[in-house]
Design a protein that fits this description.
Layout (H helix, E strand, L loop, with lengths): L1 E3 L10 E3 L3 H6 L19 H14 L1
């Protein structure tokens, strides 16, 4: 599958190929070793969500 996008600056490419299943399985992964910042946007304004995100990033 190809994804058509507006273009990748400096590359001249306009499409990206999605990896196949084996490429994903073979990819090297590293464990996440710090707290995640989770922002649940349901029931709050974009301004409140941004404030929560910025607090989370400042504490990490």
């Amino acid at each position: 599958m190809l994804i058509v996008i507006g273009g990748l600056p400096g590359t001249g490419k306009t499409t990206l190929a999605l990896p196949n299943r084996q490429q994903v399985v073979d990819r090297e992964y590293e464990p996440w070793e710090r707290e995640r910042v989770v922002v649940d946007t349901a029931g709050q304004s974009p301004r409140q969500s941004l404030a929560l995100l910025l607090r989370g990033l400042a504490s990490g």
